Every structure is written in structure tokens, then in C-alpha cells.
Amino acid sequence: MEKYFDINEQSLSIRCKIYFDKDPHDLKHIVLATYGFGGNKDNKAIEKFAERITTKYKGYGVVCFDWPCHGKDARNKLIPEECLLYMKLVTEHIKNELHAEDIYNYSSSFGAYVTLRYLHEYGNPFKKIAFRCPAIRMYDSMTAHITDDDWTILNKGKEILRGYDRKIKISKEFLQDLHDNDVSSYDYMDYADDIIMIHGTKDEMAPLTVAEEFSENNVIELIKVENADHPFSNPKYMDFAIQKIQEFFAPED
């Protein structure tokens, strides 16, 4: 089952969605799930994951939300600090209003980048974290397909549009922020035992070599999925990833 709700804090309205089996008020374990750039809270990969874990384990729920400028969010300029604030407010809501005993984090691509920045700046509120196809070097991923004409526009102080269903304004300041906050240079050793990474060998947006270097530097378990692309578009590979994450988030005996 699923239900939409809003979090209205600090003059913001965060559009959220919760998945649950029977009762949304009886969830002891909640997974905060985030997606990649240009997506939204109705993400099909998250929906499939939520269906699996909420029916597999009693008392589990999944919460996702629209990043700033994504989905039905009202913002019109993407600012990384606001992404961090959204994650902070949603995490606090899960703890204080939904009364979850444990909060997990399942994030992919851009969502994984934001989560890693969150860990660096705020510490770790999550019991366990699973990253699928994390965009660890988000600046490189975002600028890889920017043309010379695009850079000319950006250098004039104007914005370019990126995204899928909803076009998102990207400024030079946004890209500079990503450049200045390179999570691959941060230390996550203290959280390593509670993190797994799942990455496809055919990922062209977030290269496997970057994930390998990051996992080695931080002693984080990396599960490689042969021939999987960035979105894990092959259902077989997605099912494998979901199974691994589900097992990692399993309740302790």
C-alpha cells in the first residue's frame, strides 16, 4: 500500500510518499529511499523495492520524496544545500513523527551523492546504507555531456536545462558546488561496516572504476553486477540488486 503526505517545515513543502504493508502508523523500520537526478518520488525502481521489502519483513516501510525542483516540488532552482536540508527534514520526520526505531537509507546515483555529503556534514543517522550505482564524482557525471555551447551559456551567468519529465535549471554555481564538494575525497571509514555498494560493470554515467577506488579507500563492500548499466534497466539485474539490499536490511535476530 502507499500514501502521499507533505512535510511543511521552514517555509518548505516536501512532497513525500510512504509504502507499507498494512498500517503506516505501525512501522518500526523505515527505509529512506532516494533516486537519481531528474527522477521523482514515483520512481519505479523504488516502488519495486518497497513492494518486496514491506511484504518480506513485518513492520517495514519505505519513504521517498521529491528533491528540490524534482517531481511536484515547488522550487525552481536546484541548490545542493537545499537537497541536504530536505534529507534532514525527512529523516527527522521519520524519527519524530513516524516513530521509527531504525532508519535505513537506499539511494542511487545523485541520491547517493547527496547521502554521502549528508554523512560528511551531519553524521550518520542511518542504521544501514545501500548505494546502487552511486554518482560519487557527481561533477564529472553532470558535466560529461555539457557542450561548448552550453558552457558559453553557463559562463554568461545563464542556466541550461537538464532532466526528463521535468526540466531542471542548472547553473554554473550549482556545478561549482558539486566540484567543491567532491565526496570521493572524504573519509567514510567510520561508517564502512554499515554500507554496501552495488554497481554495474557497464555503467557509463558513473564509472565502475570510481566506485572501486572509493570502496577500496573506505573499505566498503562493493558488489559488482556484470553487464548492468547505470539504471539497471535489465529486470534480472534489478531483482538481484533488490535482493542484496533486502538481505542487508534484514531484521536482526
Structural class: alpha/beta
Q: What is the CATH architecture annotation?
A: 3-Layer(aba) Sandwich
Q: What's the CATH H-level homologous superfamily?
A: Alpha/Beta hydrolase fold, catalytic domain
Query: How much of the polypeptide forms β-strand, as a percent range?
Result: 15-25%
Major β-sheet profile: 8 strands, mixed
What's the number of domains? 1
What is the number of strand segments? 10
User: What's the CATH topology label?
Assistant: Rossmann fold
Distance between the termini: 26 Å
Approximate shape: globular
| N-to-C order of helices and strands | EEEHEHEHEHHEEHEHEH
CA-atom Rg in angstroms: 17 Å
Flag low-confidence runs.
none
Please give the order of strands in the largest beta sheet.
Answer: 1-2-4-3-5-6-9-10
Secondary structure: helix percent: 25-40%
Please work out how many helical segments DSSP would assign.
8
Name of the top-level CATH class: Alpha Beta
Mean pLDDT: 96
Q: Would you give an account of this structure?
A:
The protein has 253 residues and is α/β, with parallel strands linked by helices. It has a single domain (2-248), classed as Alpha/Beta hydrolase fold, catalytic domain (Rossmann fold). The chain is built from 8 helices and 10 strands. The strands form 2 sheets. The protein has an 8-stranded mixed sheet, sandwiched between helices. It has a two-stranded antiparallel ribbon with strand order 7-8. Helix 2 (80-96) packs across helix 3.
